What we know:
Distance between the termini: 12 Å
CATH topology: Porin
CATH architecture: Beta Barrel
Helix content: under 10%
Structural class: mainly beta
Strand order of the largest sheet: 2-6-7-8-9-10-11-12-13-14-15-16-17-18-19-20
Amino acid sequence: MKKTLLATAIAGALGVSAAAQAATVYSQDGTEVDVYGRVVMALTSGGVEDTTFTTNEDGEQVRRAKSSGSEINDLGSRLGFRARHEVNTDLSVFANMEFRFDASSRNADPITNNRQTFLGVESQQFGRFWVGNFNSIYYNAVGSVFDVPENAGWSNFGSVDNSSHGNALAYSTPVLEGFQAHVQVKHYSGNDEVQGDGDNSSTTSSQAAVSYTWQDLYVAAGYDQNRDYSRVGRGHTAGDGPGDSLANAGRHSDEGLWGLAASYQFTPAFSGRIGYETSSSNDSRLEETAGSFQYLGRDIFSVGGTFDYGMGEIYGQYARVSWDDNEATGSISSSNQWMLGANYRFSQPMYAFAEVYDADFDRDDAISDLNDDLLYTVGVRYDF
């Protein structure tokens, strides 16, 4: 079951994965090691079917693969280990390893994704510093407020990993009268790029965010430099890919990403949230790339709410997405995206859920034959 939005946002701002069911498997001489995870599987059916053409390896135009049929999917199952050692009453060191696996099918490689691996130091007086592979501070402070659905229905720019997930450093100040500031920088290496074949120098992409908590109110603002690392060489291993569809347009466009989000617990049973994100189109690169989604700007205005009925929650959210008009993309205008879901808890660690999502992408000359069919999801989740 989803935690209240305020609690979720605060946990996200700490830069660690929330693990309410985590079990301590080792505790001695000031060192603790926790094991946590989740198994999530769901039956999905429907959704937007892209019937446009793409180019295969032989240079032939072929239709894209079917994607709207019924299927049992894994929705983010994972296993994590978290270690912490208290150096003294003010200072502690920590490390985190979290891996993803596909619980819906048998496969030769049980670990499909190295999701988060980082280590750092934390002081109550000086704050928290960590380095490695982790969710971005922009997501922790701003994006996590709307990361409510188990499946689709979270409209955003950067997801959890834009300009993050690998080769990154971050710092968060202590909480001062409810305020907390966060900064992050990710390094993109130029190693393994053929010398003399374009620019293979290293580069960085930075983020900054500030959050404020007062009683049942949470407010955050964030900025992501959103650097276009792909222009300076294939050797810039990222761990976070550029935008390649309408759903993730604007990732790594070289245009800054700005976001605001707020949540409020109106009553013990009801919480609401509101957010706004924006980034401009990189017009010169749009023209050079014949309208690549990576360089398409948009504005996202979102509202949502969650009601706790005792044995579970009913939740929903709506996003108005306004696309920057550009001849190269067929003058895409706007879309209305919404989702509605509910869950029921069988026991403390396990619950069932059902969700419906409508992408509502507008049709135009460039994005043809897109159906705004509803996406249905029914599944079960177990946290440990």
